[in-house]
Amino acid sequence: MAHYRALGRLPRQRHTQLRDDDGHLFREELMGEEGFSSDSSLLYRRGVPSAIVDSQVWELPDQSRTPNHPLKPRHLKLHDLETGSCPVEGRRLVLGNNDVRIAYVVTGTDPSPLYRNAIGDECVFVEAGSGTVETVFGVVPYRAGDYVVVPRATDHRWVPAEPSRLYAIEANSHIHPPKRYLSRFGQLLEHAPYCERDLHGPQETHQVEGTDVEVLVKHRTSAGVVGTRFTYATHPFDVVGWDGCLYPYTFNIEDYMPITGKVHQPPPVHQVFEGWNFVICNFLPRKVDYHDLAIPVPYYHSNVDSDEVMFYVGGDYEARKGSGIGIGSISLHPGGHAHGPQPSAIEASLGVQYFEESAVMVDTFAPLELGEGGRAVEDPAYAWTWAGRGPDSAGDDGGPAVYSNS
């Protein structure tokens, strides 16, 4: 995120003294990525950021994963998933591998505990709801359609103004715009589907006083993903000023400019972010192909190096009758298995000029496994819907599935 910002009180030069009105020296903290050879920010604090007075185990929700074996496409009904109401502790693991985890939660209106993901960046898609995310960098408002990108090791808490549906993409790496859309100095280029004006970070610092403050920290050990409950001597929200290129921000899908073409465009044109071994795309309402003989729905495709996850968040899915796919659904189409439209859907799409559908896609370059949340809401008949029949007469549940944008 190489887009410079500065908020609050700062000395004229970095790594020099900054004092309050009583002469007390603020503590400087450099928060940097990739061994301080990539983006960073300098934060000026009243307290000592490393002053902890206790450390206890935080028992995370079930993080177990089950391989997709035997291999088959999957349909997971997230709106049937019961979750806790806490934006952090209520998350249930839906899908994951050693590079990225996808979790889901339907919140209440109580704030989450203070939380820090020390494994990687988080990109949380707001399916519904609104509120704020309070962070050490300041407050970031969120609304439906936002991606909320929180850098690794950022202390923050979610404060929903209303119940919110949050689709959390938790990386083991950093999440950033696609490199092909960036200049060699980090500016978003003219052919990118969004620009810096569309990224909304904190507008002012956010300071809170307190002592013996608990922060939940998600991190890794040889045993996998685990949690620790730190108690800090002073409140982490003690930053009086900061500057740099590393901070939380939001990007709303309404501001994404879909790239279209004369014939059907491949999925990479819909990309919005990327991390290590995965990409994030969004398929949004758009005009479709304008060649006289264009076929608007995609060709059958076998993404041989990736698993594809589509989360359907808006639009009209009447064309998917028989598949069970609807708003709130996830489809998992694994590498090694071709997927695409029902043959009759190809003819039906001819002459269509506009798609009114919204979906968030995650493609991973390592196989995804099912979390306990995903296993709890799987539709067992989905894999057979292209053929209309399957073991135990699963096809009797409906006709073949139809896909217009996956």
From TrEMBL:
Swiss-Prot/TrEMBL keywords: Dioxygenase, Iron, Metal-binding, Oxidoreductase
Coiled coil feature spans: none
Listed InterPro entries: HgmA_C, HgmA_N, Homogentis_dOase, RmlC-like_jellyroll, RmlC_Cupin_sf
UniProt-listed CDD domains: cupin_RmlC-like
UniProt keyword annotation of Hydrolase present: no
Protein name: Homogentisate 1,2-dioxygenase
Gene3D superfamilies, sorted: Jelly Rolls
Domain Homogentisate 1,2-dioxygenase N-terminal: 112-252
